[in-house]
Batch of 2 targets.
Target 1
Amino acid sequence: MVPALSQEAELGGCFVADLMSDVLAFAREGSLLLTGLTTDQTIRTAAVKRLTAVVVIQGKQIGSDMIEAARDEGIPIYRTPLSKYEACGLLMQAGLRPYRKGVTCLQ
Amino acid sequence: MEPTPLCHHEFPILGRAYFLGGRASTSVKRVLGEVGVDPEVIQRICVACYEAEMNVVLHARSGHITLEVWDDRVEVAVVDQGPGIENITLALQPGWSSASEEARSLGFGAGMGLPNIRAQADDMQLDSVKGQGATMHLVFRREAAADE
């Protein structure tokens, strides 16, 4: 939806939440955020926590506000038709481990 | 001579302007970066400011964030005009919330805001006059925290 500026972004882990207070409290810098929340608050939260990218699950509609915020903040957005559970499973299977340094971005 | 901070900024917050929520905190982040505050400290300040800003947006009519950068610390004040906090002890408990469905639909309002802020700041003082508003004073030491 909003492309990454660089293909070389490194993922330091993954965090999954719809509650932005949880992201603010617990997510680590450099993580991927999987979420069902499609407001510009998602992007502002990701920017404050310096997350690498946002993945919107369940093929949800992404409004122009959110896209504009993502461009402003330089946060790429991806969208998947998968459920949160399945998306988590695939990422984990593909080797994206929670909060371990040195895990590189998946293709 | 009175000591003066390295810089002093004020950022307005508009109550109920959901789509603007987070803008003031984004400005705080930019200013702190320009002054050369340690990135880890900036992140703690921004998390606290963002939660506090959302509290103002969700509960109050208006408010502002005041930011003062000193040699050894950053002081943040978040002041609002609104209903105030009826019971501060209760409000500080994780999970306690008086937020609307609308707040929850934005990803906030689960009662984690004030506990999150308290966890980020080195010192937090919260005062409120019912029917008038709330005032929060936060202090962040500029050396990076040893524990995470």
Note: The interface with chain B takes residues 18-25, 29, 35, 37, 39-42, 44-45, 47-50, 65, 73 of chain A (CB under 8 Å).
Target 2
Amino acid sequence: MDGQLLVSGVIFGFSLASIYFLISIGLSLCFGLMRIISLDQLLYYSFGAYITYTVTTITGSFWLGVLCGVIVGGLLAFFVERAIFRRIYERELTFSMITSFGVLLGGIGLIKFIWGVVPRPVKTPFTDQIVLIGTEIPAYRLLVILIAGLVYLGIWLFLNKTIIGKAIRAGIEDMNHVEGLGINVTRLFTITFVLAASLSALGGALYAPLIIVDPSMGLEVLAFAFMVVIIGGLGSIKGTLISAIIVGQVVSIGSLIYAPLAIMAPFAMMLVILLIKPTGLFGSKLTK
Amino acid sequence: MLDTWRWWRGILIAFGLVAISRLFIPLPFLNEVLIFSIYTIGCNFLLGKVGFISFGQPAYLAIGAYGTAFYLFYFGTNPYIGILVGLASGLIFSTLVAPMFVRLRSDYFALVNLALAVIIFYMMQKVFAGITKGDNGLWFLASIASTPLLDLTKPSDFFTFSLLVAIALWAFYKYIDGTIFGACCLATKINETKLQFLGYSNFRIRLIAFVIANTSTALAGSLYAVYLGSVSPEITSPARTADPVVVTILGGVGSLFGPLVGTIAYTGLRDVISKLIGNWEFFIGAILVIIMLTNSSGLYGSAEALLKKLVNKLKSQAEKQVLK
Amino acid sequence: MNNPTTLEVIGLNAAYGESKVLFDINIKLHPNEIVACVGRNGSGKTTLLKTISGFLHPSSGEIKSIDHDLIGLRPYQIAQSGVKYVPQDKKVFSDLTVRENLELGSYANNDYNWDPVFDYFPKLKILIDRKAGFLSGGERQMLMIGRAILGAPEVLLIDEPTEGLAPSIVTHLRHVFTDLSKKASLIIVEQNLPLVCAISNRVYAIREGHVVAELSTRDEINPNNCEQYL
């Protein structure tokens, strides 16, 4: 294979991985701590993209758009958490799956209402190319990879160096025990949920210039996001990162070899891993 | 004699009503309702009786539809055989994937099925575009033969056929409900460990239930294929995964007639709402959330409960009269 | 004589779903008292503590601390109000260090003074940076109790603290509990009769979800006497 093609394929794979990571980390966190499947994370992802579009169109600043996208995504999640999820934390997984699916659907309707069904193009903030190992790489993609790396670092610092982060790690182990210490778990859940949504929104905002922003974008990515999360194992941050990288590379390099492979390979991987380890590579078991 | 009547009573009344409504409700709507409810009853059974939600029912719908389509496009013209081919495809496919899927936890199960639906979408759209003609789809309406007795190319005959199929299917599901297998399904949903102690294999029960549910879903696919005379990948696009889930919840999980009532409501509302508000998803999403939050048993479940209350009230009143 | 009660349980009934576990339980706890609840496995002792600390909703009855009702409060609210639950099974957060475990306790109660903890358990100071998952059973128990005394709680609900521990550690805990009772009240659920009989002011015997006896004099409180009620 052409060396240049391979290099750009690998970079492309990492940028894909970055977006997958940002979307999937929210799903993984919500499951790990609160034992819910939050399909509505894909809604905050979509809102991240759409708000970026609107703000960019009005102000001309892409990065202001991204910031607003993240804030709006987080705000939206805050209200959804308080109005809906707060009532259903104790229920079984199927319950949160169906409910969050309803939120996702309703949210898509909201998007259609506000922005219509016609795709909204978001321009890449800069179209410069950087030469890396003799290959021309779009600088924007490199930036996306950098941002995702910083986000991972930020999450690591948060979970390991702040008290709330430690409480979350403890909660992933045993939520009842955390509550028994006297820690306000209601607030902890809200914080985690909003954090997850902000990351999903960031993923959507950064991805917006690279894809078609239309109302069903959330549904289209849903299956992929979950393939990543399942392979890595629900509830593991490290697992999600590794899985995102693997899937990103497989999709990218795979599509260079044979286009349909890009879709089928992650699926096949997921099935194989589930056969060997039904909870995913680093997944945690469902012990309450 | 009385017992047989009692057993069949609900099914005959329900579908009798459907048959009668033929007089004043347009045929296309009724045909769609019949096929769609057959599509949904599998999902309903899986969720209500076994406790598994699947976000990937369109996958099995597509298997059945494309099975029938391939037969009618490439091989033959008899729609009945086409339907059988679709049904068989569904049966074989479900049996193949069942061992892998059924051992998963409920959330993984739902999402793996979702992934399956997306995969099949891409396969039919791109990978096998040579034989599936990709997005254009397979068109074979013209090549369906007119069969004696019930000519499936005629909507009215198709309606009669679907009605009979539906009655048979409902009878089948009702029968299962009353068997030990049916009880086991419920038990596996409520308390796996206990069932294991009783000597049953949760895995095997789930496996059989999975195959039954998805084969009937494939049957719906075959019916769609014959009815529409064409099949395209769109039936299993990501947007379509919502349909069976919504209808199941709307109609009432676990009830026999939930799928029927849910489908009528869903299809009817969709046409009305789309014309009035145009924002179908918001409405459906909101309804789904409300139903889940209020723990409602759906349209049919609530109606059934209300009806029971009414009947009991009337009964006790009648008893009071007798005692006087 | 009006003996103020730190905690009072009145007519408590509790069930797990359909199966009833506690029947009409009445228990009183006075300031600076050590009260023991003894009973066989499955008699409902743990359920009682879980209900008081808010992890299980009772079907009827009252639970009162000095100034308010505990029923209906969330477990973290009950813990913050000064009633701390130390569960069975030596649960600590394995992935966090001893220091981080204590930090969580401090954060929850706004008490960053670890001196009392190290006074009771100097070993924790040595193990401060070890991951809790690598602690022995005794060390975990010390960590749990050390964590629970942060915030100077009024009531400690301790569930089977000496289970599986070496005699030297049990003796150590005995002194700790006795000393703790100078500042707080303790309800200790135990199967180790000699220990609780030695340090308790009163003993409730629980059998099949009922309080079958309350032993309050020094003569009554001895292992043989307890046994006959079980």
Note: The beta strands of chain C are 7-16, 19-29, 34-38, 60-65, 83-86, 155-159, 185-190, 202-207, 210-215.
